[in-house]
Amino acid sequence: MPPEFFLDRNLGRRVAEELGALGWRVHRIGQVFPADAQDVPDEEWIVHGLEQGWVPLSKDGRIKTRDREIQPVRDRAAVLFYLDNQQLRTVEMVERLHAHRDAIHLAVGRGGPAAYAVRCDRIDRTWP
Known about the structure:
The protein is an alpha/beta fold. Helix content is 39%, strand content 22%.
């Protein structure tokens, strides 16, 4: 069974819709928390997703540097992914993630704790 991903609000609705159309199993933060989770701290949505067995996906790589935000990943030996460029357009985010789908699935299978940057040409483990 392929992994399910929990998308941070910063990825937007269209990224979730387009990944879903490509066969990804995705859940948007706005489907779980009211007001598109505007007042929900990162550690809260990450914990919620991990409790469901969903892999956190964001475009904020700083999450891995903030103790309270990365702690749920550490505690659950989980894996988190983030895009290494916050300026990508929706189509570029979708293309980049989908191009590395197999590598992302392999990294999820290896387990963690770990954070990976999804780069233009590869994924890189960047934490711990």
